[in-house]
Amino acid sequence: MSENCQNNYIWGKNPVYEALNKNPERINKIFIQKDISYDNRLKKIIELANSNKIVIQKTNLSKFKTTQELEKANFQCVVASVSSVNFIDVEDFINIKKEGYKKLIILDRIQDPHNFGAIIRTAVAAGFDGILVSNHRSAPVNSTVEKISSGAVNHIPIIKTTSLVASIDYLKKQGFWIIATQMQAKDNYYEIDYTDMNFALVMGSEGSGISKTILNKADYIIKLESDFESLNVSIAAAIIMYEAKRQIATKAICAKNEK
Description:
The chain is an alpha/beta fold. It is built from 9 helices and 11 strands. The strands form 2 sheets. A 7-stranded parallel sheet has the order 7-6-5-10-8-11-9, with helices on both faces. The chain has a 4-stranded mixed sheet with strand order 1-4-2-3. The chain is globular and about 60 Å long.
């Protein structure tokens, strides 16, 4: 394994800690900058690594900065050699037991790893249950995605499919409602009732949006009003996901108060 292979390494205290805490089997080896003082997070990383019998090597991390992107990376004194994220298929996702309704986000041709990582992080924070992406024309789950997500990739199932259209058809048969986004839509994102249903929110690439084939599968098409022509896809996704979270939380509070 080459030490300059970006896709095989993650760095930063939070991404490494979250991988250790949630999926320690992914970690092959941990590299820590030699001759430094350990803060509480680094001490916790070492503790988790030792408990999982993962090798720790003290070294000069500058040897990892062998590409233009890695030259700018803030390693925060720790790098981990990791195996790939374990993906699941859409049937496995359906079979995951969960109380209440499931919330899924579908990414149609999101190729920017920064957007992908930010969406993963928000999806976990907003309580979504999975992320569905295509095998083709989608950003890979690489070390940039792991860093931007701050380790959230270890907290949510990532579903891969050869056909988003076929997977959407399957989800619809399983009782999911499909909610797509489009700037020309009539309905605003806050006019949809996200409660009491399984739903999948579809976000498309900033360049071309959601494909027409997938738009035709949508039960709802919504927009975000903005003074700008368009919002960054990760910001737009965050706004909608948190509106869904707000509605669901509000309904739960009301139901509790009525008892």
